[in-house]
Amino acid sequence: QEEASLPNLLVVCGDHGMSEMGSHGGSSEGEVHTPLLFISSAFEKRSGPLTQPELVQQTDLASTLAVGLGLPISRNSVGNLILPVLGGKTMREQLRFVHLNAFQLSRLLQENTPAYEKDPGYEHFKVAEKSHGNWIKLYLEGNNSEILLNLGKKVLKQYLEALKTLSSSLSKQVAQYDMYSMMMGTVITVEVLLLLLLSVPKALSSRAEFEVPLSPPLFSLLFYLMCLMLCAVHVIVCTSAESLCYFCSMSWLTAVGVMMLISALMCGILSAIAKIFENSRLPLKNLVVSSSSWSEIDVLILAGTIGHVLSLGASSFIEEEHQTWYFLINTLCLVLCQELYRNNFPVKECDTQHSTTVKQNFDSIWEVSECKNVDIPAAGNSKLCKATSSSEFIKGSDKWISLASPWIILICCRLLRSLNQTGVQWAHRPDFGHWLTSSEHQSELSFLAAVSLLMIFVLVQRRCSLVSKIAMALGLLGVYSYRAAIGNVVFPWQHDSKDISKGITEARFVYVFVLGIVFSGTKDLLKSQVISADSTVKSTGLWEVYSGLVLLAALLFRPHNLPVLVFCLLIQTMTTKYIWRPLKFDAAQITIMHYWFGQAFFYFQGNSNGIATVDVSAGFVGLESYVEIPAIFLTAFATYAGPLLWAIHLLCYLSSE
Questions:
Q1: 8 A C-beta contact, residue 652 and residue 539
Q2: Does one domain contain both 90 and 229?
Q3: Are both 407 and 270 inside the same structural domain?
Q4: pTM of the predicted model over 0.90
Q5: Region label for 584, one of left (φ > 0), alpha (ψ between -120 and 50) or beta (otherwise)
């Protein structure tokens, strides 16, 4: 009966507001202010005009709710009591509540500040506590005069002032940053960024060179002078710092190593800038020969990369990052289509800006040798005559497959987008994956899984040895058996899936073949490095390692996600044979295109930038209980299988070229 008579409390609040444009990630007044409403039968009904609502901090809510529920205030809370919530209490209860809050804040100040006694908030607390003692003496003496009421209001005001000062002091300590350590980290980051920017022109050239000139600066006088200067600054800062500094707490050997790194990077930047100025003074003839015009692919790669980096500045773009990658690879396919059509149906006439003599010579050479090995003086028009025309390289039916390949890739990407909804805004919408995983469509899922595993074998086995082909076939059969054992799919002769187990035996059966294939590939790689320098052996070894990881991905992927693996292999095969080799892209372009497709396939799997989409069940495949190291490895591999497989395919492609 006593519990039933207790009043109820309804608290309505928000974690952030919203601007007029609908944004909530900024610092405008509409975004940082949000309503806080307390509704309870314990409050007195107010009459008269509405007053301006009081402004409180979000941290004040925890202290107020703790006191209202009769619970101790959290030890590390820096909030104050919201006094209007306690307005219906007696003066003795109000003073008791604010004293508890002030005592908790003073204890927190003592734990975090050595000279806490000199803090103004602590001094105000002690004064208020002494006045509170005097008020209690009068109260116990039975004094009910107006003097007791006025003294109580005075003590309450002193407590509130002490609470405000204590909370402000503690909040400043929480927001106190280690500026020296942050500055050192920022300097290293900026130096590395500048070195990368200075190296980008060579890295994006046809030779794909990446040179960081660090060797000469390490032996220069400037390097040692900078080391001495930075070490002197480090000694001065660490000996005069009042608060604890992370960088100063490091050993002197580590600190000197960081100073040497900063000095070496700075000297490397100066050396790279000097080299650029030195090259700029070369004769114009050398510059014309070495320069090359940018193609549409180069412009797209640069604009897409910069655009993606800029999009990460907004939280909404991070939540829906998959849309950025889908757009980029679709645009990339269209540009590749344009390049293929241009190379398979070349125009025989050169640019009208050329002189008549050059144009006539170019046309005559085109008729004889299809524009082969022509030296055009104008470097800006080198695109007009490629060293080898892809129309000569691809003939017959392969030519038409090459022309259709970008459109086939676009269709594959569109199907994959329908398989898994991801992100935040549209993640709740039904997709093809949900339809497949429903119990009513288990037969359709089984058929799709079987066809997908068969396609995986067809696409992977072409460059494997005979032993690896057999191991791959048995491993993929084990994958289907594992999924049938745990009840995801059924065999044709099964009428139901009542005999469900953990599938530990079947999964470990597949692990044996994964290790066998990876071991076989590793053996070939070591053989190519130690015994013979045969590039064929090295290429085969890399491909077998890649095949073993494909088999592992097939085991860890859920059955409805196996088409993602099939389309990944199909797109890799088509782009390698019908796009990249005929168009003869350089290493930098191939690398960035692999990175783009890898990021897109990360989201095709159903992943997002939220941790809720991580499939933790992959960490328990083949394990009877939780084992930390294997579970972490399997979960990470299953999550990042898309980018990882594209990265390893890049190694296979570059080694074969």
A1: yes
A2: no
A3: no
A4: no
A5: left
